[in-house]
């Protein structure tokens, strides 16, 4: 039996013809990285290739690494295998990886979304024979409303809290979600304060995007200065000693998981806004249709349910295990989030 172009191994997704891994979860010699989230770009690889907009992100996170940046659609050949990076629309600098060898084309999406968020390069559908898709929100229950409606609701919530003399604390992952929120907050309502982890990452991304002005929260920040204003913080800050200085406050989370009321209750969040950097059910289906792919490989998320649905629709679909977390990464504390409070 002929080897597949890409194989799922104990280190990651491997192209044996090129001796290259895509988003490996264990250290390897050569890694092509789709984006900067910790579950997809890990420390310890000898050489990294990624989109040039992702270079400052992963060097900020990983320190000194050997990394080269590529442009969208730029073809680079390794041992006769042609690779190119194409927009995934997930976060700034996020890519799909197109792999072509002897007339066969595979596409690995990493994480992706189809809605244009105004700060990431919009998702680009690619024709291929085999499509590797995430399934973070691969259930019909997940149906996103346009982001304009979500941001309008967020700003209304902030304005209401301000009228009541409360601080608004809005939780979002420090890379990607926080910057998407920041871009559309209404500064006519008040000032925007940030947790250190979010401020550090936003400083990395300011050369790429025109963000509103922010103020970093430090030990010297007075509670009175925060009243009526909004604080952007990572989920790990909820329930910490860091947040206690903000009383009285109202909390909210921006996440696809806010689709379910139980998720908000479990996290003791006052308000939930449904906003995800991943595809909803319909986005996944439309993306797969646009590829004209014959074979679909479903990874992290509701992969079993989603692949079964695809098989019922006539696709050659299966699941594969990975160590990617999708939006579950927003629920997990990281050292960067915990320690970057100043």
Automatic annotation (TrEMBL):
Q: Where is the Metallo-beta-lactamase domain?
A: 24-123
Superkingdom, taxonomy of origin: Bacteria
The record's GO molecular-function terms, alphabetically, read: RNA endonuclease activity
| Pfam families registered for this protein in UniProt | Lactamase_B (PF00753)
| This protein's name | Putative mRNA 3-end processing factor
Organism taxonomic ancestry: Bacteria, Pseudomonadati, Bacteroidota, Flavobacteriia, Flavobacteriales
